Fold this protein.
Amino acid sequence: SAVISQKPSRDICQRGTSLTIQCQVDSQVTMMFWYRQQPGQSLTLIATANQGSEATYESGFVIDKFPISRPNLTFSTLTVSNMSPEDSSIYLCSVAPRRDTQYFGPGTRLTVL
Amino acid sequence: ELKVEQNPLFLSMQEGKNYTIYCNYSTTSDRLYWYRQDPGKSLESLFVLLSNGAVKQEGRLMASLDTKARLSTLHITAAVHDLSATYFCAVDSPNTGNQFYFGTGTSLTVIP
């Protein structure tokens, strides 16, 4: 299994500002994912972040709004830029050590005022 | 676009009763995952179903997969309060294999 930590665990931000969320894994993994879970909703994949390549964004998500870094095999960051109240969500990172396994981080609960 | 739908969205049931949650998906995939999420918590993996006809059981929960019907079920037997949570199914992308697409979720409340 993989142990994943995220920082911060929660934050309250003002609109127009940006927040960078960190995701740390206790083992090296190639594939890492970022999800958004809006209040009372399911998880929506934002992007796939593989080390050594540009992140691949899903429809409806763009790099300017959600820039992602993946400097090594155990770490990634997701930035939520120019925030608005609609960005209030839980943001989760996950890793897939192999195809049929995916572990999730504890999530970052973001509130934008 | 890959769609994953669950029903019901909300389920309130009494302790001791049985019920089934359904998960339909719109594309070919032979891998289906069930997760549990408690309020304010992350996701906990329950079952990984890797082939047509797969059936897995853990305690009062049993999951099955019919890839031809593109349907998975999560059956709850003799529900207890501790099972109250939101349950998600997910399928992975047929193209990349590791991108998970989640169902709408089923919020289960077990009433004593």
About this structure: The radius of gyration of chain A is 13 Å. The mean pLDDT of chain A is 93.
